[in-house]
């Protein structure tokens, strides 16, 4: 049990060291990239919705 606790302490210490090396994005970068993702998702969803609507109408006409 003690070895497990010692290994856990070593692991957590290594995690702490690695977290200090991380290059975190600035607030401006985070807002910019988040906005880009949201806009991309909206545009792709709109496009796929139009494609779905068009294919639905096409299949509906073919069935009649």
What order do the helices and strands come in, and which of them pair?
Elements: H1 2-21, H2 27-63
Structure, explained:
The protein has helices at residues 2-21, 27-63. The protein is mainly alpha-helical and 64 residues long. It contains two helices and no strands.
Number of distinct helices: 2
**What is the count of β-strands?**
0
Q: Distance N terminus to C terminus?
A: 73 Å
**Content of β-strand:** under 5%
What is the mean predicted local confidence, pLDDT?
96
Low-confidence regions: none
User: What percent of the residues sit in helical stretches (DSSP H or I)?
Assistant: over 70%
Question: Descriptors for this entry?
Answer:
64 residues; mainly alpha; 2 helices
Quick overview of this protein structure:
The chain has 64 residues and is mainly alpha-helical. It has helices spanning 2-21, 27-63. It has 2 helices and no strands.
């Amino acid at each position: 049990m003690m070895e497990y606790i010692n290994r856990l302490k070593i692991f957590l210490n290594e995690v702490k060291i690695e977290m200090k090396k991380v290059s975190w994005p600035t607030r401006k970068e985070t807002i910019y990239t988040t906005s880009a993702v949201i806009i991309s998702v909206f545009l792709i969803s709109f496009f796929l919705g139009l494609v779905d609507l068009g294919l639905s109408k096409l299949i509906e006409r073919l069935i009649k």
